[in-house]
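Example record

One chain of 297 residues, shown exactly as stored in the release files.
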Amino acid sequence: MVHNGIEYGDMQLIGEVYHLMLAIGINQEQMANTFEEWNKGELDSFLIDITKDILKFKDSDGKYLLPKIRDTAGQKGTGKWTAIAALNYGMPLTLIGEAVFSRCLSALKNERQKASQVLPGPSKKFSGDIKTFLEDIRQALYASKIVSYAQGFMLLREAAAVHNWDLDYGSIALMWRGGCIIRSVFLGQIKAAFDKDPNLRSLLLAPFFLDAITKAQNGWRNVVATAINLGIPTPALSTALAFYDGYRSERLPANLLQAQRDYFGAHTYELLGKEGTFVHTNWTGHGGNVSASTYDA
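Predicted structure tokens for this chain:
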């Protein structure tokens, strides 16, 4: 299930890269050549390889087949199951969740066609250097793929803790490398990371992936910012970056969420330095204390 969830994420990331390439004026032959070149390096994987083949394929009329395919994606449910499991275990598999919702949005084809006639977007056009931006896209795709796998292993780790499973994460990565849709060259690096530290909390903290994502960060941020300015939806690329920034943040605004929950529902909160002790505040100063009753938010 987790394998297929990561597969959903990988496919969505590649789709967003394809969309961005279209937006900046890359023709399909150039796209195919770009994916072919990417498949010789860090992004070497089954999905990159078949994307190159799809981009090169021409119909019986000599025209590319891909632009003729209706842009509504189906799904069998494994991505949804992964997202549901992530919610049940309290794990932030944001990229896989966005990949599932993106397929749901694609299914609203008739609504999107009508909305495209009335909802305005930015008028800004891409004006940067295409060769440089393509390298930024490659870096963004690579960094986001690392986040996708990191999130998948976080879910496995939490499920193992809950059910007292003894999972060999390195062997799982090795298994995925042989004959699976998400097989890629860096699955070997995932195995090496878990072999070195079986208790690794996140792949993002493993030296190989930490170095890779550090090098990719500037291009990644430029791609997300450029996509926003061009009005190109990149939910997976964007949420991968948001997750990365959230994971590296010592403080998040959840203290305000806790205060709000306590204000309207007396759900209590912990104070810094007094973890494990839950307190409630009468925030209004009048009317007595509120109490949680029929709901929890």
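Notes: The chain has two domains: 2-247, 255-297.
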